[in-house]
Amino acid sequence: MKFNNDYKIGKNVTLGKNVRIGDGTVIYDNVEISDNVIITNNCIIGEPLNDYYTNSKYTNPKTSIGKNSLIRSHSIIYAGSTFGPYFSTGHRVTIREKTRMGEHCRVGTLCDLQGDSVFGDYCSLHSNVHIGQKSKIGNYVFIFPYVVFTNDPTPPSEICIGPSIGDYSLIATGSLLMPGVKIGDQCLIGAGAVVTKDVDDYSLMLGTPAKRICDVREIDSREKRGNKHYPWMYNFKRGMPWEKVGYKRWLTR
Amino acid sequence: MKFNNDYKIGKNVTLGKNVRIGDGTVIYDNVEISDNVIITNNCIIGEPLNDYYTNSKYTNPKTSIGKNSLIRSHSIIYAGSTFGPYFSTGHRVTIREKTRMGEHCRVGTLCDLQGDSVFGDYCSLHSNVHIGQKSKIGNYVFIFPYVVFTNDPTPPSEICIGPSIGDYSLIATGSLLMPGVKIGDQCLIGAGAVVTKDVDDYSLMLGTPAKRICDVREIDSREKRGNKHYPWMYNFKRGMPWEKVGYKRWLTR
Amino acid sequence: MKFNNDYKIGKNVTLGKNVRIGDGTVIYDNVEISDNVIITNNCIIGEPLNDYYTNSKYTNPKTSIGKNSLIRSHSIIYAGSTFGPYFSTGHRVTIREKTRMGEHCRVGTLCDLQGDSVFGDYCSLHSNVHIGQKSKIGNYVFIFPYVVFTNDPTPPSEICIGPSIGDYSLIATGSLLMPGVKIGDQCLIGAGAVVTKDVDDYSLMLGTPAKRICDVREIDSREKRGNKHYPWMYNFKRGMPWEKVGYKRWLTR
Questions:
Q1: CATH architecture, domain C8-251
Q2: Minimal CA separation from B135 to chain A, in Å
Q3: I need a surface site. Which of A52, A68, A218, C162 has the fewest CB within 10 A?
């Protein structure tokens, strides 16, 4: 019932095979949608930039959605971004221009991505994450609800330096990352932490301001008694590229 | 002007007497809407689960909205949930499948309920509350803006244990509840607290991590000099079942 | 492509010259829209108050949008508010009744303003700010993402006393303001702070509960070595009334 061909489509829009577009969705000019993509109802894809309202010669920058992506209802994706294959979103996502995402990235309900940021592959943003401009996120990074990436060290100013996050790191619920902090690989930033300084690989950080508590590899598993939980890739595989063979074998593929 | 019969309705939808449905709203299959319910504009009721997009034999689970409910605009309620009478929502609410709510529950603007959770009667969620799966909330519970209920103790993992909250407890603005914490009856979790351990009945908890400050019954009233504010039921009645007779007489009804 | 005259408009709506209204937008009764205003798609302007659903004699209070304003998609503005010239919003903003804003105010994506509040001129609310009722905000105030203004000191109660903020103050990301706190002029409330007491002019406040760290005029500039950053008006001008002449000369205009 979602797909009654009751949508609007701009100029120079490319639709791959087997694309489905929901009712009430609008796709603006110069959007490229690959095979098997589902865009559900009431979305805006290729939302024009601010210039659109005032410049009669405005041209929409190119937007690209990779194959097998699923974009849920009421999401707004500005023109000028690129998403790899198997991209998916929750509802009411807002993604501004110059966002670049690798493959298999997920962006949860109500996330607000301010654009001009780069994400690797298999990044998972849970609900209501706010990513300021000029952020850099590695591969296999999980970001949990109400996390905010900030970028202005002395507000208001013209400085804009976003945080950067290494591969396999986890940013837990409600934590705040201060402008320009560099978080290493395989870190766990605990819930509600305020990260004010750079963080070494494998660090568990807690508190306000966040302090290093231990190496994440010391944290016990709650699932398998006597085992350690981190590196988590040996203990979690759902939706990961090593889902079928396990992380160990996948590494040597 | 909201109700021009410009909505869509699926199969096997039951509408009670005097139901009003706003323009642009879509009601999917197998939704039961009781008497005097108002669903305003641009809502989605009975949103199909993920399987809908891939399974040609998909059947929508049953959704039930109790009598005298009011659902405000742009709200999305997934199929497979049950709401008691006098349910109400703000705008842009998202409620996932397997949510069960008692009567007179209120869910504020932008709330994001991940589903598979149980709420008692007279629960009041203010704006922008996030409830992770497997949460249990008692009766007469108030949850204030930007509170998050988490459920994975060692992210990412396959463990999912939500918090539980006893009757008459209050969870103030911006507090985070860690996975599986059990909060007793009549507690007050202060603004910005991070609750990492179980909490006894009548506790005031503050800080990161939250510590017990005192018994809530020691807190002075700001309205009536020389009185105590808690148990709050003796001092607050708006919208409560004891609104007309007072809590004391209501208890002995 | 946004403006195909596919909108709905109520009674006694005044449209100035050169007003553009996007598809899917609804404007209810008694709304006054000044010259050169752009309201993009799927907005609701003059959303009726609760009484609308039950009172057959309901009359919508007056709503006024100043000239040269830009309201982005999916925003909901309740009836009974006034916005000065050059007002702008992000997407999915919710603004309740009895909100009064001066000129050049900006309200970011997902902001939730509960109404009955007063804002001066040139206030800038970034994404996802929550302003409880009875708040007072001065002029040239910046409020960053996920800030919450609370108003009930002993929840739940019938007391409603919002925070007040002096001119030129900055409320950084994720900070919480407790009910009724008075923040002076030129303050900087740091990210994640929980402000529980009144704050003197020029204070930098950090932590939970927030403590005074220093005078903001002691904070070094990150842009100009050897200089101080605050008062910020000497170092930041984008979008400000002193943009062309500088703050010093503007003061003596």
A1: 3 Solenoid (2.160)
A2: 16
A3: A218
